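Sample entry (252 residues):
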Amino acid sequence: MSCVGKATGLKSPGEALSNKLVEDELALLDKSINEFWNKFKRNVSDISCKMVGLRDAYKDINKAFAEKLSVKLKEEERMVQIFLEYQNKICRQNKLIQEKKDNLLKLIAEVKGKKQEIEVLTANVQDLKEEYARKKETISAAKKASEERLKRLQKSVDLYKDRLGLEIRKIYGDKLQFIFTNIDPKHPDSPFMFCLHLNEARDYEVSDSAPHLECQSEFQEKVRKTKNFSAFLANVRKAFSTMVYNECVKTV
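Predicted structure, serialized as tokens:
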């Protein structure tokens, strides 16, 4: 029997059981592999989804960061611009302050200069006042002296008017004109005259004698030295008388 069974290809129960076990193990292995594969695919799909999510989240974060960074940069640029404008403004203000300071220093220097000029002018004014006072005093003294001389002249006029036929007139330029008569016996009323005035040096000055006296300047120097006006008048009258006498002698 056993030989016949082997010849026909029949398997023994033990062998069949062994094959059955192998097939079951293979089926179980295949199932495990399929389950692992399916689980792996699910995990890979989940990971892929997570990666996509992470990528999108990264993009969103990166975009938000870029936007914030852009805003921040713009703010910083604006702050830099504001700082530069403020710095330029400070520079302009400093320049303006320096200009005002220079102008103020210049003004102070001018004020000091004006003050010195005022001091000099004040001193000059004081000197002028003092000089004016001295000149005023000198003029007053000269005026007083002139008045005294005029008084003496008037006395001389009163003294010699009748005796010498003398008349005194005040003419232009503060001059006194002295007119003698009773010199020419043939013509008693014929005038013989000269002018007298005080010059800037307050000295006597004789001029405009008519008829002209050659010794006019000599009489002038003498009266300046002696101050004897009476003798001066007598000498002038004598000179006119001598002139008339000489003319009479010539005509004889």
